[in-house]
Amino acid sequence: MTISGPTDGVSELVVVANRLPVEYSDDSAQARWRRSPGGLVSALEPALRGRRATWIGWSGQLPAEGEETLDLPDELDGLGIVGVDLTAEQVELFYEGFSNGALWPLYHDAVATPAYHRLEYEAYHEVNRVFADAVAAQAPEGGTVWVHDYQLQLVPAMLRDARPDLRIGFFLHIPFPPVELFAQLPWRRQLLEGLLGADLVGFQTHDGAQNFLGATRRLLGLEPGGDRVDVPDGSGHRTVRVQDFPIGIDAEGFDALARTPEVQARALEMRREMGGFRLLFLGVDRLDYTKGIDVRLRAFSEALEEGLLDASDVTMLQVAVPSRGNVEEYQRIRDDIELLVGRVNGDLGRLGDPAIHYLHQPIPREELVAMYVAADVLLVTPLRDGMNLVAKEYIACRTVSTGAVILSEFTGAAKQLEAAFIVNPYDIDAVKRALASAAGSSPEELTRRMEKLRANVFEDDVDRWVRTFLATLEGTVP
Ligand code: GDG
Predict the structure, then answer these.
(1) Is 243 in the same domain as 260?
(2) What is the pTM of this model?
(3) What is the Å distance from ligand 1's center to 165 Cα?
(4) What is the overall mean pLDDT for the chain?
(5) Half-sphere exposure at residue 60, Cβ-oriented, CA atoms within 13 angstroms
(6) Which terminus in the chain has less CB density within 10 A, N or C?
């Protein structure tokens, strides 16, 4: 494994995440690396602007035997880039194995059974060490480091050992489970101690922060108080702050894109293509078993069968973006969902007029925004979700304050978006009723709700998330 990129160590903020925010494009005469669109990099853009920053992560490259990895640029649009190279075996064991086969299901209420394999944990430890070493070599004296997400939970403590001069923040994008579940993990102590290497540990929700503090009490015997916990450090102790920082989106950016004539025209065209129906229901998710895609398909089809919704009046579009296709559980959920779509369309569709339009492909951003503009009702029914940005993006695109969101109570977003139609996704009858209720609400009622939702999304936007996290970490918030 090699580290590539600049080595002069002069950046002020170091961001560490499993993936680098870059992609290689060879679709033009000028093949080159460019910033990958969306995701964490757009979220952090405002914070990265105006200060020196370096991003450390894996480029996603897995060269075939005998091939070299492509050289990464040292810098891209002013952002320092440092690549961490991983082997195919490490990706299989650390990423697909421990991160996505053990931690992902465990942290999402074990909605799929987590698999704990010692070899995979060893690879997780090894790869976390590689990331920590890369950061230790890059970060300037006294600099700030922001580590992201469940793949890198051992990094904070490893980094503190090597570089006690650094200010270290960690943010978990997914839920942190109740201690009764977390306690299953054979390496629970190592992960808690890993996270406690940070000065600030951030979660999406208050519940996540409380679950973590509870785990430090129950499993490490610490005595957390308020939003802090003291941890032994040499002969004394160190205080770790633990708080919720609900992530937001670039609401103004989505709003502006939704207003462009091109997107507006495409939204109208989409509705025509889908039969010009009165009401369009929409779901957009990575194809993941936590997202409850089957829940909404069932509720929608039962609502049609029982006449709660009239098939000649409604249609549904479900986008299931391909994700983690090498992990077995993901292959199974794809089969389950596609079987269900086929059944519903077989039973309830008509020639040229399916009940459910289904796409299993990545969608360009403008097209996605046109879908948000076109849809009357967004269905967000995860069994558990850290936040759910799709709900917030849809709301930001409802520029004329129409439309409705059906939102699972088990998303982080439900804690903020109280004016949505909040549902328990395990209760199909309740989801069905919510569909009918959203479809039958008066325009005034929907506008009243949407105005509240838009106020939430515009106020707690991504800029605020970044500023609050970094200000807390850097000590300007007492
Ligand atoms: C994790 C947590 C938390 C998806 N497909 C396409 C596409 N996307 C974009 C969406 C949205 C993002 O990806 C998905 O974010 P979500 O929040 O909905 O879900 P996860 O991927 O599970 O994200 C989650 C999040 O981290 C942030 O902290 O909210 O709880 O699980 O931005 O728009 N964008 C485009 N084409 C696609 O096909 N353009």
Answers:
(1) no
(2) 0.95
(3) 34
(4) 92
(5) 9
(6) C
